[in-house]
Design a protein that fits this description.
Blueprint lengths: L3 H6 L7 H9 L4 H15 L7 E5 L5 H8 L4 E6 L2 H14 L5 E5 L13 E7 L8 H9 L2 E12 L5 H13 L2 H21 L4 H12 L3 H10 L8 H10 L2 E3 L17 E8 L5
Helix pairs in contact: 2-5, 2-10, 3-4, 3-9
Length: 279
């Protein structure tokens, strides 16, 4: 008999991330690829020449492509969503034909993932909190990092309104496309109103969003509102867990100053290095 946890882990119960990323992938330009590569290089404190790179939850394939641009000797892109895997394959085939990459439909929980060996860099950006079991997924992903390697990931910050967003996301994944579109319009209308009260330019925010992250605001809003399963975590909880796994933080995490979470949790961005094993 399937438990509620089993149902939560099943891909069939998840938001259709792959469909959203497939739509976004059609918008990827050379400029966005350059932005993604620059952001990845900044995050990892250098290039990836000669390094194996594992992208867990590859989505559109943009960051797998960025890793190739930074000189990775091999890129393995995995996702539980077949549409994400196929999208990543198309993106890499178009922009890096014949490159040292492969794509696989596989979950972070699958034992087959361990057969891929260890990697110099494991990257999982805004993914593990959507697996249905964050506290199991994080150590499993960390276990793919070789001695002395890097683990870069982003996770939702716990806020006062996380309980409300859980309700919204459960509703959103089962709502009709029309109802989802109405919900997004309401979200944007409230956000624009907030910009007025905080004296921020909404148009400038939208224009700069892609330039700063290489992403698209409207696809990200759909991703946020539909992101089920949903978990969040505080930086101190991440730190305790990573220490127990033999990792040390490389600098301080980029933290979102969110406490209430009216427009979402936002992600804290982490970079950890695995201790070099002796002998």
């Amino acid at each position: 008999m399937n438990t509620s946890k089993d149902r939560l882990l099943a891909q069939e119960s998840h938001f259709e991330f792959g469909k959203n990323w497939a739509s976004y992938a059609n918008m990827i330009t050379e400029a966005q690829i350059d932005i993604a590569a620059a952001e990845l290089q900044h995050l990892l404190r250098g290039r990836l020449d000669g390094k194996r790179f594992l992208d867990i939850g590859c989505g559109s394939g943009l960051h797998s492509l960025a890793a190739l641009q930074l000189g990775a000797s091999e890129v393995v892109a995995v996702d539980i969503d077949l549409e994400s895997v196929e999208t990543t394959c198309r993106v890499l085939a178009r922009h890096a034909p014949g490159g040292p990459w492969r794509t696989l439909k596989i979950s972070v929980f699958d034992v087959e993932l361990r057969a891929l060996g260890e990697f110099d860099v494991v990257y999982s950006w805004g993914v593990l909190h959507h697996t249905g079991d964050l506290y199991r997924a994080l150590p499993l992903a960390a276990g793919m990092v070789r001695s002395g390697g890097q683990f870069a990931f982003a996770l939702y910050r716990t806020t006062l309104l996380c309980w409300l967003w859980k309700i919204e996301k459960r509703w959103y994944v089962s709502a009709t496309p029309r109802a989802q579109a109405v919900a997004r319009r309401v979200y944007l209308a409230v956000f624009r109103l907030a910009c007025v009260f905080t004296l921020r330019s909404y148009r400038k925010y939208v224009a700069e969003y892609r330039a700063q992250r290489g992403m698209d605001l409207f696809h990200d809003i759909h991703d946020w509102m539909g992101g089920w399963p949903y978990e969040s975590i505080l930086p101190r909880q991440v730190q305790r867990l990573m220490w127990s796994l033999g990792f040390m933080a490389t600098g301080s995490p980029t933290r979102r100053r969110l406490k209430v979470g009216v427009f979402g949790s936002g992600c804290d961005e982490y970079l950890y290095s695995k201790a070099i094993s002796k002998g």
